[in-house]
Structure formats: C-alpha cells, structure tokens
Amino acid sequence: xxxxxxxxxxxxxxxxxxxxxxxxxxxxxxxxxxxxxxxxxxxxxxxxxxxxxxxxxxxxxxxxxxxxxxxxxxxxxxxxxxxxxxxxxxxxxxxxxxxxxxxxxxxxxxxxxxxxxxxxxxxxxxxxxxxxxxxxxxxxxxxxxxxxxxxxxxxxxxxxxxxxxxxxxxxxxxxxxxxxxxxxxxxxxxxxxxxxxxxxxxxxxxxxxxxxxxxxxxxxxxxxxxxxxxxxxxxxxxxxxxxxxxxxxxxxxxxxxxxxxxxxxxxxxxxxxxxxxxxxxxxxxxxxxxxxxxxxxxxxxxx
Length: 303
Fold this sequence. Notes:
The strands form two sheets. The protein has a seven-stranded mixed sheet. Strands 3-2-1-11-12 form a five-stranded mixed sheet, covered by helices on one side. By secondary structure, the chain is α/β, with parallel strands linked by helices. It has one domain: Purple Acid Phosphatase, chain A, domain 2 (4-Layer Sandwich), CATH 3.60.21. The N and C termini lie far apart (43 Å).
C-alpha cells in the first residue's frame, strides 16, 4: 500500500509539474460501444482494428459493452483482453451499460457491486490499456476519493484530457425515498474532480480541456423526461458551464448518444464550450493549433 502511495505521488508530481510539450497538432480516437440488442464484441473489435490502422495519439473507449449484454465477470474479462491488445494507448470511460444499468436475474440493481468489480479489473494501476500504455493520473490518488479510480486525466502537448463518470441513465439518479447515496457521493467526487481539472489547466496555461463521459450533461431533459423525476445532470451542467466560462481556452465534451438516431458527428459550440456525440463505431477528432476553434471532427467510421 505504501509503495502504491509513493508511486502515485511521484506520478502526480510528474504530471502536475512537468512542462507541457510544444504545441502540436494531434489526432485521437473515441470508440463507442453498440446500442443495439446484438452482441457488442464485433463492433468493438472492428473499431479497434480500424483505429489501430490510423495515426492516433491515443483512443478512449466510451463503454465496453452494450446494454443487451450480461454484466458478467466473463464479459468484463473478455473485453479487457480485447482492449489490452489495442495498438494505441486506450483509456476507458465507463458507460451506464457497463455498471449503472446492471441487474441480477431477479431484476434488482447490482450497480454498486459491478462498479466495484470494474474498478478492480480495469483501473488498478496508473496506465491506460493497450500496447502503447500512457501514464495517467487517477482521482484515487487523492485519499478522500480513493474509490474513484475511473476518473483519470492525462496531457498531450498543451491539452488536458480527462474522463468523468457520468452514466447516461440520468446520471444514475434514483428516485426512491431515502438517501441516494451512490449518486450523492459521486456528485461530491465529480465536483472536486472538475474543480481540480480546471485549476490545473488554468495554472499551466493549457489551451484546451477535453472531457469524456457517457451521458450528455449539457442537454436539458425533455418535457417528457423531466415529468415526475429530478434532473440528475443539473448540477454537472451548471458546474461545467460555469467553469468553462472562466477558462481562457476551449473546452470540448465528448459523450455518447442520448437514445436518438445516429447523426453525422459535429461539434456544437456554445461560446468556448463544445459538445460532440460519439456514435457506435469510432470517431476521430483532431487538435489543430492553427484553427481558432482548436478542435475538429476529422472523420467518423462505423463498422
């Protein structure tokens, strides 16, 4: 345990105090799991093969399984093997289908147990998956938030990249009476994480921040969705918007689809805050230093 703490502390110093590399253009990929009722491995495998063939700095996997697939240890293990053999450094951004939507045979939620298993299996060191493992800093390096190892950050040039656990099923807000403990505890962790990310990027005078998550916290709920239930993304929407307004660079939010028909990917900008949907398959995004918008969708490929 002490050895892990020392290693995490050294990694924090290296990532926090190091001088950012010279600004340069960069391509990175985002792989999205299938939202269909079919098995997901073929979609993931094709997306990994196609992104492996491209010149990418890294890839983010937005979810590892579809909702239709079981939340079993076998599925998790099979996906880990598949993701580990990717040629690019591959960072996992958890989706609701990976844990928050999981139920046992009796129809009862097993979200907390499945989230714990995913953390144990995929987030037990300070590196990404894939053959070109990239060093990352996890929120769990802060003792108060040692459970939240899925929230991770890394830098390429003068851009900060980070994952944040915001599942698409209304941020896993439960409407049952009593304390909504998982949601409330994760809200505290996510507020702290966002604050640290923007402080760090501002202090180092970075040009941009890219956030990867499952749900789209910027999209207000429709009238039918909001009827009779609380908005689980309300706080995150307010905080991301407020922090972005104060940040001198550009902020890009990359998220999964909101149960809508897939459309060609494009970045929707609101001031310096942009949002883009990663549809099933894989999406390539470019960082273009000469472009005033900084970020651009370079192309989308669906297997």
